[in-house]
What we know:
Helix content is 30%, strand content 30%. It is α+β, with helices and mostly antiparallel strands. The protein has 2 domains: 33-52 and 202-316, Nuclear Transport Factor 2, Chain: A, CATH 3.10.450; 60-194, L,D-transpeptidase catalytic domain-like (Beta Barrel). Helix 1 packs antiparallel against helix 2 and helix 3 packs across helix 6. The radius of gyration is 22 Å and the shape is elongated.
Amino acid sequence: MKILLIFFLSLSLYSDILTIYRENGIKNIEKQLDLELSKKEYWSEFLQDKDTTFGYIESYTDILVCDKSKSTLSLYTKDTANKYSKQNTYSAFTGKVKGDKLTEGDLRTPIGIYNITKKISNVDSFYGPLAFVTSYPNMYDKYRGKNGSGIWIHGLPTEQKRDEFTKGCIAIDNTSIKCLDREIKIDKTLLIINPKDKHKEVSKEDLTVILSNLYEWRYAWLYSDLQNYLKFYADDFKRFDGMNFKQFEKYKKRIFKKGGKKTIIFKDINIIPYPNTKNIYQITFREFYKSNTFVFRGDKTLMVYLKNKTMKIFAEK
């Protein structure tokens, strides 16, 4: 029955698109398809069989989860069925002081979502055979005024003794760090640091709202609908360069007045609930933007929260 319903709905949409093409040409078909991408019905169906254990993830095949309360680092890898399954759990040392990292030298391990930016093979013997550098501080850290740097995943001293804690890094034994090196691809690995164990699957309903809103935001942007574009921004919005909502509104008014055809494509979308928060999500994607006067191809990050079942952007880079 369900497959039959989808079939008839598809036929209906197909018929609508043909009619639009017959009467108005190809440009209006593109606009109709852009609108369809903003509908919850599409995303609800799309997400039905997706693994949303960690959120909606297109970019990453490997996920490292550090549980600070249990002093563990676990590796989850996407299998042939596109499900994340646990491969290993390593005992880990974390920062001497409990809580989230706030400032340089506070001896805390940060709580958040990070990329692995590179591997360092030639490290001081105190850090074992190798180290992975993380992207701390990320955009959300900077938004909250957090600072510091040099948060690594590394091994244990090969020549020295050490305490059972770190200055903020995550340390695992040398056999484990070598094993991890063999098992992950740096550019396909995400690190999630939690203050405590978390295994609750992310709500598909919330992800449906965010994905449909993301494409409704794109639709308004694409067709220069400033009012509907700005409705997705929080009053306390702050861009990475410090621009507040009022300044951003004026800036976008000037841009949208130019009109003209735009191309906006999102790829490698990732929507992940931010650790130790309620209803806050990090969205990242690869964006291709082209207008008559400007071309951009690169990474985009949005920090959003859900309010009354609507996505609100409060930080952007």
